[in-house]
Amino acid sequence: MRTYFFADTAVLTGRTMRHVTRSMDTIITTAITPIAMMLLFVYVFGGAIDTGSASYVNYMLPGILLITIASGISYTAFRLFNDIQGGIFERFQSMPIARSGVLWAHVLTSLAANLISLVLVFLVALLIGFRTGAGALAWLAVVGILVLFTLALTWLAVIPGLTAKSVEGASAFAYPLIFLPFISSAFVPTATMPGPVRAFAENQPVTSIVNTIRDLFARQPVGHDVWIALGWCVGILVVAYILATMSYRRRIS
Predict the structure, then answer these.
(1) Residue pLDDT, tens place only, 140-156
(2) How far is CA 215 from CA 132, 153, 202, 219, in A?
(3) Given a cut of 80, is residue 93 above it in pLDDT?
(4) Would you say residue 1 has pLDDT above 50?
(5) Cα 155 to Cα 242: distance, rounded to the nearest angstrom
(6) Which of the four pLDDT bands, split at 50, 70 and 90, describes residue 98?
(7) What is the C-alpha separation between 202 and 40, in angstroms, rounded?
(8) To 10 degrees, the CA torsion angle through 196, 198, 200, 203?
(9) Taking the domains of the chain in order of start, what are their residue ranges?
(10) Which member of 154, 162, 184, 222 lies 3.0 to 4.6 Å from 206 by CB, making a disulfide possible if both were Cys?
(11) Among residues of the chain, what percentage have pLDDT more than 90?
(12) For the residues of the chain, what is the DSSP string, one character each?
């Protein structure tokens, strides 16, 4: 059964990846908005924000990377919704394939597409001055956190993809996630925020993830932020996975 699951998931992932590669504009579109934000903040607002000795592009890149992921997962919900509306799920149910492979195919495709978008954003960041002396282990840690965060949000995207009544409803859930980094330490130090806003900013998942990635790039001790970041990512992933699989079972029952 496990062999069939991996084989079926590989075939189904190839199918969804072909849809992405035939429409690369979705990946480019996903990357364009974060890149435009990055250029806007660096060249328009960056001079007015005090980030100490760090250049502003170094300071705000972790937040831009998270926005890139949040933008990309909306397409996961969109593709999943289209498959349901097109009757693809009903067709798959009549075939001798692992049912969970259908969901995993969309999740793995989302992960691959988001990684491509992240690379594009990072290359632009290099062009406008981002620099880091991070070693191999620090880079592995950054990639690991970004992959874990992408998986967590992707399984979250599966839920509206399965339950939404319209295309707009399937993808609109991502908008609050895109704006969440703006109320965090991603673009300005939280110490400059009013009391209630600061309290929210310092205790939401984006701040701990951003601080961890920023410290890894800067070769600074990550402290307890890394454990908070991992806790948020794993917690969201587990809850989203359970809710997504429950929604899937109800949908195909």
Answers:
(1) 999 999 999 999 999 99
(2) 10, 23, 16, 6
(3) no
(4) no
(5) 9
(6) low
(7) 24
(8) -140
(9) 2-252
(10) 184
(11) 45
(12) -HHHHHHHHHHHHHHHHHHHHTTTHHHHHHHHHHHHHHHHIIIIIGGGS--TTS-HHHHHHHHHHHHHHHHHHHHHHHHHHHHHHTTHHHHHHTSSS-THHHHHHHHHHHHHHHHHHHHHHHHHHHHTT------HHHHHHHHHHHHHHHHHHHHHHHHHHHH-SSHHHHHHTHHHHHHGGGGTTTTS-GGGS-HHHHHHHHTSHHHHHHHHHHHHHTT---TTHHHHHHHHHHHHHHHHHHHHHHHHHHHH-
**How confident is the model at residue 167, as a pLDDT?**
75
Are 31 and 121 a contacting pair, CB within 8 Å? Answer: yes
Residue 219 — left, alpha, or beta (φ > 0 → left; ψ -120 to 50 → alpha)? Answer: left
156, 150, 191, 135: which is closest to 67 by C-alpha? 150
Selection from 177, 142, 180, 141 nearest residue 156 by Cα: 177
Structure tokens at 25: 């504009």
pLDDT at 96 exceeding the cut of 60? no
Question: What tokens appear for 172 in the block?
Answer: 């609109």
How far is the CA of 99 from the CAs of 4, 11, 162, in angstroms? 10, 13, 14
Confidence band of 3 (pLDDT split at 50, 70, 90): low
